[in-house]
Each structure stands twice: as C-alpha cells, then as structure tokens.
Design a protein that fits this description.
This is Reticulocalbin 3, EF-hand calcium binding domain. One of its GO terms (cellular component) is endoplasmic reticulum. It comes from Seriola lalandi dorsalis. Belongs to the CREC family. This protein is mainly alpha-helical. The chain has a domain at 44-208 and 251-297: Recoverin, domain 1 (Orthogonal Bundle), CATH 1.10.238. Helix 2 (45-52) crosses helix 3. It has helices at residues 2-17, 45-52, 54-60, 65-79, 89-100, 102-115, 125-138, 147-164, 174-181, 190-201, 211-216, 229-242, 252-259, 266-278, 288-293, 295-298, 302-316; strands at residues 86-87, 123-124, 171-172, 209-210, 249-250, 286-287. The chain contains 17 helices and six strands.
Length: 317
Amino acid sequence: MMLLRSLASLCILAAVAFAVPAQEKRIHHHADLSDHAHDDAHGFQYDHEAFLGKEEAKTFDQLTPEESKDRLAKIVDRIDTNKDGYVSHTELHYWIKHRQRRYIEENVNKHWNDYDKNQDGKIAWEEYKNTTYGFYLDEEFDDIEDKATYKAMLTRDERRFKNADRDRDGIATREEFTAFLHPEEFDYMRDVVVQETVEDIDKNGDGKINMDEYIGDMYSPESGEREPDWVQTERKHFSDFRDANKDGYLDGDEVAHWILPGEVDHADNEAKHLIHETDTDKDEKITKKEILANWNMFVGSQATNYGEDLTKRHDEL
C-alpha cells in the first residue's frame, strides 16, 4: 500500500533528521560536488566528480585513455544543446547541476511506474492521489485512528502538487513530479518549502514561529533535565539572528533565510573554472577541440588514475 510506504519513508526521514545535530535538520544545504579537495596541482579528481557525478567518475577510471576521450566527445555533443559547436558557461553550468541532481532523478525514476498507471509518461493528480490514498479515500479515513493527520497529509500533498504543476493542467511531467517530491531543489517551490516548515513548527496556528515553538522543534526536555548549552545557544541565535525584525516571531521571510541560506553556487564556480583552464582563445566558451585537448581535466582513465595514485604515494613519502 502506497500510504504505508509513504509513512515508512517519513519514519526513515525522521531517523535521519536525528542523526544530524537537531538545530541543522531544517536547513537545506547544497551537496558538495566532490569529496576530494579542489587542488589541480595534485590531480583532477574533484573536477572529474563535479563534471560526471561521483559514480560515473568511477566508471571512467576503469577505461583506457582512448575510451575516455571517445565518451567525452559524445558528452560534449549532449552539453552543446543549441548545437552551435561551442559549450557556453550556461550550458556547462546546467550540465554540472544536472549531474549532481542525478541521484534525485534516479529516485524519481525508480517509483515512476507506481504512479503513472496509464503509462502516458505523465502523472495526473488523480493518479497520485488514488495510488497513495485510494483505499482510505473510499473509507473516508474511518478506520484510521488519527483521521485528521491523514486528511491534512492529503491536503498538503495536493497543494504541493498544484505548485509543482507549472502549467496548471493537473498533470505532472517528470520534471514537475521531481519538483513535487523534492521541492527544496527548485527555486519556484521555495514558498512551499517555507510554508510547510512553518506549519510543521507552528503549534498555535498563528502562522508564525515563536521562541518556544522554535526550540520545541529541536529539543524536548526530560523531567528535571538541565537545558543543554546548545539549546541556550539556539535561543540566542533566534533572538540575535533569526528574528531579524525583533518582533519575537519568525515570519515567512525570516524562515526562508534560516532554512534556505544563500550559498555559493559550486556548479557555477566549477563551470567558470573549467572554461578558464581550457579556453585557449579566451572567447569565454569552449569547443570540443579545446575540451579534448584537456580531456584529463574533465574525465579520468586507467592512465590518469594510475598517475594520481603515484602522486599520492609520492606525497605520502
């Protein structure tokens, strides 16, 4: 049953939330492009993982240099979406962001057929609703103990679906369905993420978050327990930083600054870096020839992997 699967997912997410510091669980950080340091003097592992994605970069490390270059040439053709023979900053930036979001797309693809019942390549709200809540809708939630919670989940899902559905036709494309499942990854879903966060924390229903609600989302004291230092620090953060207008509450804008911090766009920086390093004629765009002349910056191979291993051993000596 889809609803039970959804509930299981919520339990898993809850467990993950408590595996990180409680005060961090609401904040949506951008994932790093690579686990490696960005130091071209000691190899291009960072660039490889940024350009290909972490798993695909491992695949290239098993290829011969010739195979790597052949595959890279085909990738360049895909990046050049307007087919003008150049890779622009915009095209490279989009490609890198796409590769980094691949794990999300794979998750969506894995469950796509569960919802796309008529196999038309789209998911209508009715398909999602009936698959997830169908049985309970028929029974009007009568056999469920916490009826109000399930009805609230349905209402929330419908609102989020409508926001993800940009053309308002009641049917989600794969991109729109991805925005529905992962709204924090899409700028146009920002208001939904903020609204849902406020609703989760706002216990008295006034549409704002006060100090007690803010702390209560992170910490539930045991009887007689002394309040930990980190909780006192969070109280200070609420007063000094989160509550920008000093009215004692967090409104939507203040919540947005808290949970959706403006961060460095690592994909943008990497696109600029790769173009700067390979753009020999300095026209601020790169050709396939320029890319292939510097192929080992973009992708690895058995040879470059071996060379990087030697460098690593030399550094360790």
